Predict the structure.
Amino acid sequence: MTADRPHDPGIGTDDPADAAGVASVAGTGTTATPGDATGSAGFADGGGRDGGILGRSHRALTLGIISVVSLIAFEASAVNTAMPAAARALDGIGLYAFGFSAFFTASLFAMALAGEWSDRRGPLGPLFTGIAAFGAGLVVAGAARSMGMFIAGRGVQGIGGGLVIVALYVVVGRAYPERLRASVMASFSAAWVLPVIVGPLVAGTVTEHLGWRWVFLAIPVLILLPLLVMLPALRTLPQEGPGPRGGLRQVLGSRRCLLALAVALGACLLQYAGQHPSWPALLPAAVGLALLAPALVRLLPRGTFRAARGLPSVVLLRGLAAGSMVAAESFIPLMLVTQRGLSATLAGLSLTGGGLTWAFGSYVQSRPRLEPYRERLMALGLVLVAAAIALVPLALLDGVPAGIVAVAWTFVGFGMGLNISSCGVLLLKLSRPEEAGSNSASLQMSDALGNVTFVGLGGVLFVAFGGGSIAAHASAVPAASGAASHPAAFVAVFATMALVALSAAGAAGRLR
């Protein structure tokens, strides 16, 4: 899987009646909320005679949604492949982690914004604004002349991605009858499989023959076709949301948006301070912590940070599992390119097996006969994730084939498939109906926060152990040559993320 996939965004609203088909969809696992009545007013169950989500009434909208999700998924998988080349070309290896965390941090705020906006004004505003922002961010990143400009483009992309994926979930809740929503959500998951397989190959080929910029600049043009396909169906949706009325100013001033903004700004300041260790950096660190801590306490269920039994532990485990995996995954292509001399294509392909085994793990956890053992399956999956991440730095040894990374990542994908979907199942099981929406939003924020926190921590460790001095002009220098070789920086990142995944396995004992 990829560093900036849109992990199960939920709806980002405190009102469970407005959580459009509350679902847990991450990578390739889907769990739809039973009894979801979101947006059902005014939408009769008229899909029966048309044969489901690809019937006459829903075909254009379904194909458009799948196309948009597939493009986001393709971009996500392509970025991992192109990022080492982009960071070296822009002399920004020391800021490598910011290229990922900027997306996650911005999308965290955008998820809350999209939920509030959709509730008050309907999903079309955030959907089209998000698509425009996503395309604009790609152009800014592709045209960047400095790492700072590149990171800014990734942040704009994150805003767009967060708006789009939440708005799409609201569209599903309003445009499809209840009996079809699970199928639509499953199509979201399926839309990730092919891009995860072909994305690294295409992006690697483009990077090597045309340059990394075209990985970003070519995608905005592709967004236009799916928009045109589903536009007629989107126009039939109500233009107002079921929540309290209000313009964009009221949306931005809502409590949840302000808290999410505080968390995003706090995370940015803390990561900046962590990568610039000095006395002056204590000021942004203190401000970041003052913004982050109180906002998090109000956004997440009480007891989350002490792993209280039940729902708080589910939310905590989601952040630990997703964050450790994404942080480790973010540094794998950079390690393989700079330390083992692999091409961008081969480095990206080392991650594709995880996408397939993620789907298999999600299938396994869905088997009814395994339901009594869900918590044990999740603990086992996280132990597999921890062990596999710990194996990755063996690829730094000249006598060990670089292919060990690809093998290890298949186990990571399987373990994550067992866990991410199971988190959604347990969330719904432990939530009262009137709390399903806010609890789902908390789960997605924990996911995004885990990504931001641990990718940021990975960047701090990488710089602290000398990784920031990898020569930007070195195309691919094996570790044995000494120049541009900083194995300790990568070992620090992967060892830490393995420990985080192992701690998540310990939290699995408190899920009941």
User: Anything to note?
Assistant: Confidence is low (pLDDT under 50) at residues 1-49, 471-483.
